[in-house]
Write a structure and sequence with these properties.
By secondary structure, the protein is mainly alpha-helical. The protein has one domain. The protein has three helices and no strands. It has helices at about 5-70, 75-80, 105. The protein is rod-shaped, with a radius of gyration of 42 Å. About 0% of the residues are buried.
């Protein structure tokens, strides 16, 4: 087996350096391309999600306004009238209590 001199080793090392650097640049460029592609995809998804959130927030506001309108006393009174309900000023109550078990008679 042939032994290389220090000068030959140095020349070999220097000739490998540009090749290693080129390979590193190519690998880093590919990694950067994948990262940029991933960020672009996530950005598009984020934009889509933000638009959906905005749309749902607007719908929520409309529903809240509709609920507030529907639960007003005027609306409830008009709806009750349409259903045939009437306002009765007369209140009726039971004159005698309903029969219920009396505890004092049970224990005596």
């Amino acid at each position: 087996m042939r032994k290389y001199s220090d000068k030959e080793k140095e020349i070999k090392r220097r000739s490998l350096l540009p090749i290693v650097l080129i390979i590193m640049v190519v690998v880093l460029a590919v990694v950067q391309m994948f990262i940029l592609n991933s960020l672009a995809t996530k950005g598009a998804k984020l934009t889509k999600t933000e638009k959906e959130v905005e749309k749902i927030a607007k719908e929520n506001e409309l529903f809240q306004a509709k609920v507030a309108s529907s639960s007003s006393m005027t609306t409830i009174f008009a709806r009750a009238k349409l259903l045939g309900l009437v306002n009765s000023p007369e209140t009726r109550s039971l004159t005698s209590p309903l029969p219920v078990a009396q505890i004092d008679k049970v224990f005596n």
